[in-house]
Amino acid sequence: MALVVELSARECQDEPAARHRIMSEVQRLCQHQAMMPCLRLATGNDLAAVQAIVHAAYSHYIARIGREPGPMLDDYAALIEERQVHVAERDGSIQGIIVLIEQDETLLLDNMAVTPKAQGTGLGRMMLEFAERAAIERGYSAVTLYTNEAMTENITRYTRAGYEETHRAEEKGLRRVYMRKPLGKA
Predict the structure, then answer these.
(1) DSSP secondary-structure letter at 60?
(2) What is the CA radius of gyration of the chain?
(3) Strand, helix or coil at 16?
(4) CA-to-CA distance for 126 and 87, rounded, in angstroms?
(5) 139: phi > 0 → left, psi -120 to 50 → alpha, else beta; which?
(6) Inter-CA distances, 157 with 28, 35, 67, 124, 154, Å
(7) 7-46: per-residue pLDDT in tens?
(8) Rounded CA gap, 77 and 82, in Å?
(9) Is the dihedral of CA 51, 128, 58, 105 positive or negative?
């Protein structure tokens, strides 16, 4: 996002107070923009941060499901190499990750994780919206995802965001809830 402000020489001379108010607002907007999350493709340099975020976001589920959740078992070096991982940076640090995998008919949101300190800040919602826009831009009419059935708060979160449960199944020893969200056309 670029912010462009034009003031005529007359406005600057005639209204110094107005100019000051406008410039103060521009400064505030620029500072706010610097705090906004930036989503970008992950690189090999991000691998340790990606793994740390996944560990921090999912390790508390181990006791609940009796083993490491699926995202903790993924090969993030390979996923990064395949350009399937995006990272969300804010204030100079990576605070979230999202893994998107193109499939035949839908875009699979394979994993989304946010650092515990950034949870509740809207970062997860922003990454969901990013996945939905990416699906539309790539010509898909839906986003699919799955979560462990014991992660009930995730099921609730996705349902609130418009995802509908399609089925449940056991895969790789994990009991999963599959969900889908139909999207409008680009």
Answers:
(1) G
(2) 21
(3) helix
(4) 12
(5) left
(6) 32, 25, 23, 10, 5
(7) 344 444 556 666 556 645 544 443 444 457 789 999 999 9
(8) 9
(9) negative
Residues 6+ apart with CB under 8 A from 53: 94, 95, 96, 97, 113, 114, 115
Instruction: Write down the residue that tokens 């515990």 correspond to.
Output: 116
- pLDDT, one tens digit per residue, over 75-106 is 999 999 999 999 999 888 999 999 999 999 99
Count H helices and E strands in the chain, helices first: 7, 7
Cβ neighbours of 110 (radius 10 Å)? 20
Tokens of 136: 């539309």
* Separation between Cα atoms, residue 174 and residue 70, nearest integer Å: 7
**Residue 32 identity:** H
Could you tell me if 26 and 5 are in contact, meaning their C-beta atoms sit under 8 angstroms apart? yes
Backbone angles phi, psi at 14, to 5 degrees: -75, -30
